[in-house]
Every structure is written in C-alpha cells, then in structure tokens.
Amino acid sequence: MDGAGVGIAFWALAFVTLGAAGGVMVSRNLLHAVLLLIVTFIGVAGFFVLLSAEFIAMAQIVIYVGAIAVLMLFAIVLTPRTIRDNSETAMVGPAILLGIALGTVFLFVIYDTEWAVVASDPALSAEDLGKALLSTWVLPFEIASVLLTAALVGAIMLVRTSEEEAEDDA
Amino acid sequence: MSEIVQSEPFVMNIGPQHPSTHGVFRVKATVDGERIIDAEMVIGYLHRSMEKLAEERTYTQNIPFTDRTDYLSSMSNNLGYCLAVEKLADIEVPERGQAIRVIMAELQRVASHCMGAGAFANDTGAWQTPIMWFMREREKILDIFEMTSGARLTCNYMRIGGVAFDLPESFEEEVRAFIPAMRQTIDDGEGLLSGNEIFIARARNVAVVPHEMAINASLSGPMLRGSGVAWDIRKADPYCGYEQYDFEIPIGYQGDAYDRFIIRIEEMRQSLKIVEQALDGLPGGPHSTEVPLALRPPAGEAYARIESPRGELGYYLVSDEGPSPYRFHIRPPSLINLTVLREMTVGGSIADAIVALGSIDIVVGEIDR
Amino acid sequence: MATKWWSGAELAAAAERLVPGSVARTSETACALKPESALQTFRALRDDPETDFVHLTNLCAADYWDHFEVVYHLQSLERNQIACAKVEAWEREEPVVPSVVDIWQGAWIQESEAYDLFGIGFEGHPNLTRILLWEGYPGHPLRKDFLAMPGGLQPGLNEFAGTSAKPEPPVHPVQ
Amino acid sequence: MGPLVTDHWYDLRDLSNISREILEGIDKVAPSEVAYIVAPVLGFVAFFLIFVLPSQLIVGVYGERRIIGRMQARRGPNRVGPFGLLQPIADAIKLLQKEALTPKTADRAIMWAAPIFFVAPAVLLFATIPFGPRMIFADIPVALIYFIAISALPVLAAFMAGWGSNNKYSLYGAMRVVAMSVSYEVPLVLSLLAVVVFSSTMSLQGIVLFQADVNLWLVFMMPLAFLIYFISVSAELNRTPTDIAEAESEIVAGYLTEYSGMKWGLFYGMDIGYALAASAFAATVFLGGWSMWGLEEWVPPWMIFIAKTHLFYFVFIWTRGTLPRLRIDQLMAFAWKFLLPLAVFNLFLVSLERLLWVENDIGDGIVFAFAAGNLVASAAAAYLWARLLGYRPERIPTKPRLVREAGGYVPVEGQTGGGE
Questions:
Q1: What is the mean pLDDT of residues B50-70?
Q2: pLDDT category, C143, cuts 50, 70, 90?
Q3: Minimum Cα–Cα distance from B189: chain D residue
C-alpha cells in the first residue's frame, strides 16, 4: 500500500484514533467512554489495513468491536445506576504518575529498537496465516481453544439458575 | 433470576396508548427483565356512565346507548336490551322479527370475530396480513348493515317488540353472495395461522385458564368455552327461536390462547350456518309489534342475557312504572373476562401478556361503559 | 331444555333448607338473604349438588332511596338453572355488605365497580378500590341523590312535564 | 474459463471497462492525484445508478410495500407518480421536513450519533461484493470475514439508539437486538465457514468463479448452510419472523420508539439497505453471483446478479408478509439448541467431502453426487434433531371439539391437547 492516499489515510486515522482514546479517558459518562473505545478499536483496524494485513484488521473488528465491546456494554448496562458515571476518584494523582512512567518506557523502547523496514510488503494472505497456525503454532492454538472452552463453561455455570428454579422457567 | 445476576424489578406501563391494548386500556406491569411479576389493570378512560344516563331517558331512547358500549357488536347489544325490556314489559315479538334478529346477531358475531381473530393474529406478530383479509370481508357485512339499518357501526336497528324496518329486497341475495366469500376467507385465515409452527409456539400453552378457575371467575363466551366448558346461551337458554336452528358449539382443550383463537374461527363458520338456515326459513308477516313510544312497563325487575361475541351480555332492568328505567345495569362480558388477567400474565413474558390480552378480545367501550 | 328460572320462593326454600333462618324477604323474582348469614348461605348454595350455583353471572347494586340492594344472579351450568338472590344494606351513609370474593372469584371486579359507583363497602374484599373513576372523585355517581339539584329537583323526564320535582321515593318496587 | 468480456469501452457487459477508460483518459491529462479522487466518485455514481436506485428505492421501499399490499388484498402505494414509483422520494421528503425530536431526558450525544453509526456500515458492506468478472470495488482476499465484521457494527448502533432514548421500550429493544445478534452470529459464521471450506477461498470473486467452474451453485451443494444463513441473517436484520427488536405489538417500536423525522428515516432506509446487502451476499455466495452457467457471456453479469439479489430479497418480503413473530426466549433456544448443532454438523459433512474430493483427486462431477448426498443428510439431520429436542407437531389439534348440548365441563378424553 503506497501512494499519496496512504499518507492522508494514515494521518486521518491517527488523529481519529488518538482523539477517541483521549475521549475515553476524559468523558464523564461511562457509556460514552465505551463507545469512544469502539471508535479506537476501529481506528486500530484501519491501521492494520494500511499495513495491508487485512485478515488481522477484520479479525480485530470481529473480536474487539463485535464481541468484547458488546461484553463491556452489557457489563455497564447491568451495573446499577450509581457506579455508572466516570466521576472523580482520589486515584487521579497516582494515575497520572503511572501514565507518565509507562509513557516514557514506551517512548524509550520505540527509539531504542531499529525497526527492520521491509522493502516490499510480504503477501501475508490468510492462507499462509492458516498454515502457520496449524503447523508451527499448533500448540498455542490448541491451548487457547481449551482456555476459551473452559471460560465458556465457567460462564454458563455462573449464570445457570439452580435446578428447581430452572423447572418453573421451562 | 439466579442469585448471582441481580436485577431489581421496575414498573412498566403497557398502555393506555399502546398498539395492542385494543383501545384505551392500561396494564401496570411490574417487570423483572422479560418476566412479569405482577400485572394490575387500570381502566376507566372511556367511562361515560351510561347507567346513570339511561335512568333519565325513555326505554326507546336508551337503544342508541347500547350501540356505543360494545361498538364492535352493536346489533347484539341492541338485541340484549330489547329482550330485557320485552321480558320486563311482557311483549311478544312476531316470527319474522325474531328471524331477522337472529340473522343480524349472527352476522354481527362474524364481523366481531373477524376483528377479534385478526387483532389476535396481529398481537402474535403476523403483522396486518390476516386482519386485512378479515377486514375485507367485514366491510361487506358492514355494507349489509348499512343497507338494512342505515348505519355501519352503531346500527340502532332493533326496537322493543321487533326491528325498526323490514329487510330491503336485495338483502337476501346480498347475504347469499357474501357467505361463500366469507367461508373462503375463514379457510385462508385458518390455513395461514392454525397450522403455522410459529403461531402454535406463540399461542399454545400461553395464558392457560383451567376450567375450574374459568367457572369460578364467572368468565363467559370464548374464554369459558376455551377451557372446555360447553356453555353457550344460544343453546342453554334459547332466545329469538334459536332452538329451531341446527348448529354446534366449539369448545377447546386446555383453555390457552390458541384454543380461544380456533374457537372464534369455528364460531364464525357456525354463525354462517345459522344465517343460511334463518334465510331459508324466513317467515312472512309483520317485522315488529306496535309499542307505545313512552312505554311504561309494570313495576318489577328483569334480567335477560344473550350470547354476544365476547360472552354473556346481560341487561338487568328495574322498572317503577315510570317512562324511564329505575335501574339500568349492563353485564359487561369483556370486563368480567378480565378477572383472570393477572393469573394469565404473571410469570410469562411481556410478549405473552400481549398475546393473553389479545386472546380475551376486549372492547374498552364495554369495559368502561 | 331452556334454562329454569328459579322464582324467589324456590330460592328461599332452598336457602332455608340449607341454612335455616337465612332468608329476610322473598319477592316474586328474587329472595333477599340476611346479611349476617349471607356468606354461609352462598357457600352452601354453591357447594350443594342439588342447587349447584357455581357460576355467579351478574352482581350489581341498586339504590332504592331508603336502602341499597346488591343483586346476585347465580347460575348452574350442569343443571342449567338460574336464580336471583339479594342482600340489602339499610344504612344510607356507610352501607356495608359481606363480600363473596372468596366464594366466587368473578365477584372481585363487579364488587369493586359497585363500590366505585354506589359507595357500598364490601368487607372481606381483597383490594376494594375505585376501578372506573379516579381516586379523588367526589361522591358516587350512580346513587339517586348524586345529581340532586337544590330543592330536591331531579334531572330527567318527570312525566315529560317541565322540571317539577320528582315524586318522593317511589313505593318499594320489589314487594 | 476464457476472458468473458472484451476490453472495449462500449462492451456494456462489464461496466468497469468504461471507468477504466475514463481513468486512463484522466491520467493522460491530469496529475495522478486527480484520478485518485475521481475513481471513488465514479464508482459511487455507477454503484448508485445500477444498484441503489433500482434495488434500494424501487424494490426495497416501493416494491416491498406493494408486494405486501398485494399479499394483504390491498393495492399498496400507487398515488405518487406513475404507478406510485415516486413514493420513496415522497417519503424521504416528508421525513426530511418532519421534526426529529430528542426527549429532554435522553442522552443527546448517543442519540444523535446512533443513526450515523447505523448508516455507515450499510454502504461499506457493498465494497467486496462482485457485480461482474472485473466489476468489483475491492477484491480483498478476506472478503467473507469483512462482511461478518461490518455486519456486527449496526448492532452497536441499534444499542446506542435504544440506550440513548432513555425509554423503557427502547431499552427492551436495545437489549433484545444485542442478545439476538450475538447468539445468531455463531450459526451465521459457521454456515459461511462451510462455504469457505468447500470453495477453499474467502474472496467473494473466488467463490463466484468456483461456482462457475464447478457449474453447481452452493445452495444445491449445502442446502442446510443456506437455510441456516437465511434464518440467521433474518434474525440479524430484525426481519419477521424474528423482528422482536422492533416488535410493534409488544414494545411499540423497540429501539426506534423515540426517533422521528429523518433520524427514523435513516434507520428505516438502512434496514432495507442491510437486507439488500445480505441478499446480495447470499446471491454471491449461495446463488452463484453473476455467473449463470454460461449465460453471462450474453446477458450482462451485473444484471444477473441484481436479479438474484431481488429474488432473495423477495423471500424476505414474503416471510414478512405472512409469518408471526417468535418470542425472545424461543429465538434464543432455537439459535443455540437447533441452528448451532446443525451448522456444526453441516461443516463436518462439507469438510469431509472436500477432503475426499481433494485427496483422491476425483473430477468435478463428484460434486453433484455430494449435492444429492448433502440434501438427504441435511433433511435427515434436521428432522432427527428436531425430534430429539421434543418437537411433536402432530399432537397439537388445530380444530376445536364440537358439542351439540350446553352443559358443564366436558373433559378431554383420548389425545391430549398438549405437545411442544
């Protein structure tokens, strides 16, 4: 992906994503924060498209926007009214300090490593990803699936109504 | 809900402006998620206090009131009131008058059930299609009413002692042309809905009223017959010569919304059968007896009842030899059928509550009088 | 085959047989029961297989100036017979009648309506509130003296004459 | 398969020739940036003329109302313009000049943003759908996942609308739309996975070419996947029989209760846009896209494609006109207990056949045998699984009992009225 359009697209996306990320921290209403977080996720997916890694961009949207954002929305909607506003907490001071510390670490890491700028972008097609996943990386893939299944079963057990209550629901 | 996922119930108003409360009727439902914990009905939005007004008008002047209580079956209301006054004043109605009354009451039942069954299909979600078919046929009935009585909805056609005017000439062939088309529409409507799995899933086992509760809660009409109780005033206490006609009463299996729907559909077919038999044997002679305008029935009380499309419609009249009734009470079948609304809706979801309300087939004019 | 309409006397006989001394007055079409033993009589009428009045079709009230009457039309589906029973409440300000809600659940709405429009208290009624009118409504509309204008004038027909006063309370119609 | 279409600009069978000629002309004359900007504009205008105008306006708004009208024994719009064809424009103008209310207690920002967030993905969905051999906006290799990803966005917009309106009915609509879309996403993805496994490519152009090569549409190859796709998509789009998010009879208008004016108009218009996008996607994946067993050499391919889309869209209209609506818990149970196992079974069956086909290197004819086998296997699986879940339709009497005499309770003897 190169040419004039990419530059424009990159800066526009960067502006949108960082703006939304800032909005997440600043916004009073928790729900506004989650929606801005969704805009950030979409912005990050846009970056993946710019890096011509379409599969990961689509995966990003499906997983983050499609599932995790909905999960967060449900979490917020189900919490009672009082906890829902992003109000002032005493933790603002230490939070800013921690933020600055993390920021410096990231900046140092970015400047320290020299990025191997790839001459032509490798055709990372879904097929190679699939083959890689099921050949060299098959172990983490299986472990991840077992983990997800366990989480699924756990969730169901958590919410399952007890036996006799389930009877009168049917 | 299990003890981990805690959600506190809140009150939700279904009505008075709501697409499927069949008029200005409100259900204050306490809801926990989708399940209804408590349902309390709020009525009275359409209360015109007819019973007070009727005490200041003569017996004949009260007839237009009865059109406006159950505005979906004005002929049946007129018939009920006239029977009560005739019983009070001991007036004989000629043969032809009774046959015309039967034809009109049964046509009105078909028109009312068209509305009831169609609205019920709307509540389960078959949006507008079945009700449009039924409405197309109901229009023909209303045209027939307009041809005979001059009005489509509030006909004011029956008088004490018979009917206001005799049947126009083209009445018979108009009705005979209408009956096969109506039968075809009933089959279409039933074919579209009764066998449909989604309709069965939405209506079967929903809002079940066991027969003991139905009798104890003094329900009547399709509500009572839905629970398997074979009680129809046209058979139990025949009026206007119903004993001459051969027809059956449909009764249900377990008193759920689905049974009440198929009963209303079947009742339409039976009514068409009665209309045909009445038309075949239409006797000649006068259509009504002469009754003085300011009728003064002897002192006493009388209670007469008919099988209106919604149930047992009764009129309790007390006369003190004055020109106007001393006490005029209407037994509203829709209101009394609502006694079991709480038992039907509590425990189910909001969607079931709407289906339950649709299966009772209420008319708010009759509830609030 | 038609419904057998019980006369006042027949109902009085059945009531006396089931609960002796429960009948106050009988008239040609109805039989008035004593309020104190009314509940017991109604329960007996419902449970006795011979009378079998399981279906309370109609319950309404009537105001006869000197007393209120609550009219019950009881019906048996199996035996296809109907009878009319009454309970009278003589005090004008606070008329109280025993509530039959625990005998027939169908009475719940009809008694609330009678309370709403006539002001008859039904003791033993689970939630006796006004259903048709709103809570703060002054007075009970269906009472005879509700719309009485000053000077005892009554709106209405008055023999089609002008607005002469309506005759004083009529002779008791049900005798 | 040789080049279907010549490169001359006048060859209307593939409209991309014209746009390529225009862009090359501009390149000769102006700097490259101008062509860069003209290309999307040109593409959008072409797309609007051949797809949005006939489908969205004529078939979507006008056609649906007329067809449903005819199903309900009434005429449908025929007053505005010849045969009522200008009805959609009249609606739009009416909605534009209506006031878009925002309740005082509503969350203004979210309620304002919801329609925008709802409209954007509707147009994005058409980016990867092939209209012709070379007529495609963006032939990316992951087109299928692109469709699934973008179709998750309107769910969030609907939730924003429902939550922002701060009204009990809207809250119900929002919760229902999210709950239902999440649980119908899984069977949808699994049924499309079966398509990918069989045609071994995720690019929609690749799937269409695969179906043209094998001369068999995937709808005949895997009828179960097609059925599951149809049910899941109608659930995602809130079309009857699964339109419980805007169930008129229960929760007034669901998450659209507080919307009026053009905000509501956007939701209404884009509902049809999504339905058309889903139909276009189904036409591409299951009904062979623009290929029609060789007919595409004579008839322009994009006409074939649009005809198939409208055919599929008619099925949506048909179900909307006739079927009643399911309850939320029945829908959930149906998705998890019935559709999901069948989707997994279908995926297993198709991958087995694919393995058989590729390993032993049999010719393309075997595909028809697979199609027949799949049809039987799918029917058997669906029937047995329904029986397993306790679904006995025949024990539900659809006629009441007829009695001649009036009397008390008539007990039900013999077959009970019970059953699932």
A1: 88
A2: confident
A3: D322
Is the distance from CB of B145 to CB of B152 less than 8 angstroms?
A: yes
Angstroms from A91 CA to nearest CA on chain D: 27
Specify the CATH number of the domain A1-112: 1.20.120.1200
Token pair belonging to B263: 């009963």
Residues of D in contact with B349 (CB under 8 A): 327-329
Low-confidence ranges of chain D (pLDDT < 50): 1-2, 415-420
Q: What is the CA radius of gyration of chain D?
A: 24
The one-letter amino acid at A153? V
> Are the CB atoms for A31 and D110 separated by under 8 Å?
yes
**Within a domain: residue D194?**
yes
Do D256 and D173 contact (CB within 8 A), yes or no? yes
- Model-level pTM? 0.88
**pLDDT score recorded for residue C162:** 41
Average pLDDT for B233-250: 91
* Mutation to test the D interface, candidates C80, C81, C82, most D Cβ within 10 Å: C80
Measured CA to CA, the distance from residue B355 to residue C108 in angstroms comes to: 23
- Give the model's pLDDT for residue D56: 83
Cβ atoms of residues B54 and B63 within 8 Å: no
D155 vs D162: CA distance, rounded Å: 11
ipTM > 0.95 for the complex: no
Nearest CA of chain D to the CA of A58: how many Å?
A: 6
Q: Tell me the pLDDT of chain C averaged across its residues.
A: 82
Residue pLDDT, tens place only, B306-348: 999 999 999 999 988 888 888 999 999 999 999 999 999 998 8
Which residues 6+ apart lie within 8 Å of A129 measured at CB?
A55
When computed from its CA atoms, the radius of gyration of chain A, rounded to whole angstroms, is: 21
Distances (CA, A) of D109 to C50, C97, D101, D253: 72, 59, 13, 21
Question: Are B197 and D322 within 8 A, CB to CB?
Answer: no
CA torsion sign for B8, C134, B26, B331 is positive
The b-or-e profile of A142-169 (16+ CB within 10 A means b, else e) is eeeeeeeeeeeeeeeeeeeeeeeeeeee
Residues forming a β-bridge with C56:
C74
Residue D117 forms part of a structural domain: yes
D252/D167 Cα distance (integer angstroms): 11
User: How many separate domains does chain D show?
Assistant: 1
Chain C CA closest to residue D410: C78
Quick one: DSSP state of residue B288?
B
pLDDT in tens, B125-176: 887 889 999 999 999 999 999 999 999 999 999 999 999 999 999 999 999 9
Distance in angstroms (rounded) separating the CA atoms of residues B276 and B267: 14
Which residues on adjacent β-strands are paired with residue B229?
A: D409
Examine residue D36 and state whether it is found in any structural domain, yes or no.
Answer: no
| Contact yes or no for B171/B148 (Cβ under 8 A) | yes
Residue D93 CB-half CA count within 13 A: 5
Give chains near C: 3+ CB pairs under 8 A: B, D
| CB contacts, 8 Å: B340 with chain C | 105
Chains in touch with B (3+ beta-carbon pairs under 8 Å) read A, C, D
Does the beta carbon of A161 lie under 8 angstroms from any beta carbon of chain B? yes
In tens, the pLDDT along D183-236 reads 899 999 999 999 999 988 888 999 999 998 888 899 999 999 999 999 999 998
CB atoms within 10 A of CB B294: 15
Q: Is residue D405 part of a domain?
A: no
Cβ contact C–A (≥3 pairs, < 8 Å): no
Burial class (CB in 10 A: 0-12, 13-18, 19+), B269: middle
CATH of domain B10-368: 1.10.645.10
- Provide the residue ranges of all domains of chain A, joining segments of one domain with +: 1-112, 125-170
